[in-house]
């Protein structure tokens, strides 16, 4: 498995989005890398620790694992720190053959009050679950997205919000929770009713928890927009560690 590393950077004080990347360790190729992996596997067996199953998304239990469509070959996993925490890590996994490869990872945020299995409008919690990713957009021009992309000033956050939030929606990817697939993320249609909430997106980070969305650094959003491929049926698996592992 290859893990692409990302360098941590700071945005200038005037920037609206927090551009913080999670640094990951690189995995060297060649015989040395293979031997190291074999040694680690032997150590895991000696210690009694379970050997990770490469055909499964790490730290995701049977309940949510079973909801990942067989056709999906890209998974954005959102690992919330805790049920009442707004801090998270986002990892992109790409399926090669039958094995899932960890492709990239970023520090991120979710709902400021944490997570819920029964999301409602205004609860400030992100919904736990598995959802498809089918549409994108933002204030900024299309950066080369593979998903259908709508560029519009209508995405702009209202300026009565704190200035740190003004660029949140420069890039967004709609999470298909209570929305109509195949439409712009701006579409407000909520098939399950207004009370169930909606407009839950992956969007640019401002350095703290959100209303219910998941936020990433600008570089992370650009990477996902350029690499999430509708032909690979991308989905997001999201929740706090306990709910993910169930």
From TrEMBL:
PROSITE patterns: PROKAR_LIPOPROTEIN
Start and end residues of each L,D-TPase catalytic domain: 89-237
UniProt key word Translocase: no
Pfam families reported in the protein's UniProt record: YkuD
Annotated region described as Disordered, given as residue ranges: 29-58
Keyword NAD applies: no
Alphabetized UniProt keyword annotations: Signal
This protein's name: L,D-peptidoglycan transpeptidase YkuD (ErfK/YbiS/YcfS/YnhG family)
Biological source species: Streptomyces iranensis
């Amino acid at each position: 498995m290859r893990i692409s590393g990302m360098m941590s950077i700071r945005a200038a004080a005037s920037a609206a989005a927090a551009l913080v990347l999670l640094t990951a360790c690189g995995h060297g190729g060649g015989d040395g890398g293979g031997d190291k992996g074999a040694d680690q596997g032997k150590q895991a067996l000696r210690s009694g620790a379970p050997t990770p199953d490469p055909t499964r998304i790490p730290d995701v239990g049977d309940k949510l694992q079973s909801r990942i469509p067989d056709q999906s070959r890209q998974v954005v996993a959102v690992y919330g720190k805790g049920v009442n925490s707004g801090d998270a890590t986002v990892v992109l996994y790409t399926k090669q053959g039958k094995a899932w490869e960890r492709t990239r990872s970023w520090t991120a945020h979710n709902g400021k009050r944490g997570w819920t299995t029964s999301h409602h409008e205004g609860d400030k919690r992100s919904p736990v679950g598995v959802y498809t990713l089918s549409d994108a957009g933002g204030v900024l021009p299309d950066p080369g997205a593979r998903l259908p992309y709508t560029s519009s000033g209508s995405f702009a956050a209202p300026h009565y919000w704190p200035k740190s939030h003004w660029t949140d929606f420069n890039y967004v990817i709609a999470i298909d929770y209570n929305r109509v697939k195949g439409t712009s993320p701006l579409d407000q249609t909520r098939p399950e009713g207004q009370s169930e909430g909606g407009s839950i997106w992956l969007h640019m980070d401002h350095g703290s928890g959100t209303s219910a969305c998941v936020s990433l650094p600008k570089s992370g959003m650009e990477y996902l927009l350029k690499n999430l491929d509708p032909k690979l049926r991308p989905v997001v698996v999201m929740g706090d560690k306990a709910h993910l592992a169930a």
